[in-house]
Amino acid sequence: MEGFKLFKNGSFVEKIHEYSNQLFLLERNDNVDIMLQTVYKDKLFYLYPSEDPKVLEFIYILRGEIECDQDGQKTMLGPNDYYSARGLKDPVYFIAKTDVTYLWISTEPIFQQLSADSANLRSMVRKVEQKDPYTFRHGERVTINAIKIAKKLNLSTERLLDLDHASELHDLGKINTPIEILNKPGKLTKEEFEIIKKHPSDGANIVLETTYNYIAPIIEQHHERLDGSGYPRGLKGHEILLEAKIIAVADTFDAMTEDRAYRKAFPPQFAMDELKRLSGTHYEPEIVDALEIILKEEGIL
Ligand SMILES: [Fe+2]
Ligand SMILES: [Fe+2]
């Protein structure tokens, strides 16, 4: 029948799959995207104000439960609850309490933008992982511990979300680091280390060009240390963002507990002792303590 289209279960036009969620574009028109999104348990997401005040966003929950955070006021939402936004002034934040699936209708072509940025950044992360097999899923593991630490420290949902993206993409700048340096089995020369030191700023510059530009400062600071001995800027204590300090701890722990080209993995307790030795000089004591509590709770220490 002309003008009529039928779609069977599982059909879609395009799909974005990230480790935190799956987004299907079901149908589109000039100015309307109809999408189905599944966000996985414990992941964070938000509704962001559109530049055009006439744009309508509409979300209808099909399965699962989410917590909505409006300036600290929390509301649980479940199947058949729905919400909409038009002329939104500030972002609204959500946490998936279970895997949650909802229908999402937007009167602006948002899928294309999300798809382009997400595909770009993630394909770069994958390229970095291919260059250095020891970093395979490193971003993902750092993210998991960084979010657990941030929750222990009671960071707001908004900051959790930024941290989530920044942790996953923190080593993106290694896309520019030569493979021979990343995989060198021996000690790096001074010149080689200078090249390694460029990756935080390179990563920040890459995200600046995307919809993820707000996490650029976190990425740039993930190798800064409290006493100013870090890089690229040698920032000290309070000059370093809390999010970057959290990534520093989660990153160091993961790097030590995984095999590297030049050595075998260290046991978790050894890595923790090392973090504690440098607590207060390199790492924020509060953050090191939070990670220790988490690892003990999980029986890893
Ligand atoms: Fe790094
Ligand atoms: Fe890293």
Task: Quickly describe the structure.
With 301 residues, this protein is an alpha+beta fold. Helices cover 38% and strands 19% of the residues.
Task: Give a verbal description of the structure.
The protein is α+β, with helices and mostly antiparallel strands and 301 residues long. It has 2 domains: 14-108, Sandwich (Jelly Rolls); 114-297, Orthogonal Bundle (Hypothetical protein af1432). The protein is 38% helix and 19% strand. The chain contains 10 helices and 10 strands. It has helices at residues 110-131, 138-152, 157-169, 179-182, 190-196, 199-208, 216-220, 242-256, 268-277, 285-297; strands at residues 14-17, 21-28, 33-39, 44-47, 56-63, 66-70, 73-77, 82-86, 92-96, 100-106. The strands form 2 sheets. The protein has a 6-stranded antiparallel beta sheet with strand order 1-2-3-10-5-8, covered by helices on one side. Strand 2 (21-28) and strand 3 form a beta hairpin. Helix 2 (138-152) packs across helix 10 and helix 8 packs across helix 9. It is globular, with a radius of gyration of 21 Å. The relative contact order is 0.10. The model has no long low-confidence stretch (mean pLDDT 92). One fe (ii) ion binds next to loops. Residues 170-171, 199, 222-223 line the site of one fe (ii) ion.
